Amino acid sequence: MFDANAAYKAWLERAYDATAASRDDSRWRNVSAEHDALERHILNAGRPSIGDRVLELGCGTGTLTRKLAHAVGARGRVEAIDLSTEMLREAMTHFMHPAIEFRKADFDSIDLDASSFDSIYSKWAVELSSDVRALLRKMVCGLTATGRLVVLTVGDPACSTVSRAARFIRHGFFAPADESHGTPSAFALASEARLVETAHWAGLGNAAATSYVSRIAFSSLAELVEWLCETQGPIKGLLRRLPVERRVEAKAALSEFLSAGPESEAVASQQSILLAGSLR
Question: Could you tell me whether strands 267-278 and 206-217 are parallel, antiparallel, or unpaired per DSSP bridges?
């Protein structure tokens, strides 16, 4: 019997493995600057301090992990988890710190000890979960009595260039019944109110959400398309499922699609929602 969740996780791992090496390429300094600003919002919300034990789910290439390690110092502990072997390899290649333990795992499947972390973080990862509600409840249970949960997730997909591009390729180049690219969670964290409501359901007594809109300018539409196709896991994962000649066709069609939309000025947009809160 076909296991849709297993297929989705396998596709997800391959997709992010394929983007790891180009994710932090110097060509994308404008992207890195925007992401750095969002990570500082995350740190301000979580307030990690010297000696804390913290957890990061979906650490990617480790840009936030580094900041967390500096915040907790050598006496603290940062447990950084990711599904992608290559993402973790990039993270460990470019930054090692005595406080960090990198670990490969599917955060939907791991068990967290109750009341074991002073703060838990996730940046653009919980929306990839097979069961977002269960994952948030697991994260809340892992907090100490005074611990804080901080999650940055994708907001309204209609406001996201990445989401629009992935949806265009999925609908334009795959049959509706084709499950080769897996089945992501049907749960969409598309509003501040819904995210806070879900956090309360998960046991986070004190929670608030704030939206941030990013607009990243590229030198040309061609550069924007290259960034989407080389660094964004959902898009590269879909392209890799196509024969080579169809990939070329898909990229050309994507460029034409974006040229008729808000991205015609070579600007990538995204709404992100930052959830922060504590047990009480």
Answer: antiparallel
**Average pLDDT value for residue range 208-235:** 95
Nearest-angstrom CA–CA distance, 77 and 101: 8
Nearest to 259 by CA among 165, 170, 156: 165
pTM over 0.85: yes
Counting the structural domains of the chain, the total is 1
Q: Which helix (H) or strand (E) holds 236?
A: helix 233-239
Across the range 59-82, mean pLDDT stands at: 96
Extract the tokens encoding 194. Answer: 């819904």
Q: Which structural domain range is residue 226 located in?
A: 4-278
Cα–Cα distances in angstroms (integers) from residue 76 to residues 38, 48, 145, 155, in the given order: 23, 10, 18, 32
| pLDDT greater than 60 at residue 187 | no
* CATH number of the domain to which 222 belongs: 3.40.50.150
Tally the C-alpha atoms within 13 A of residue 275's C-alpha that lie toward its C-beta.
Answer: 34
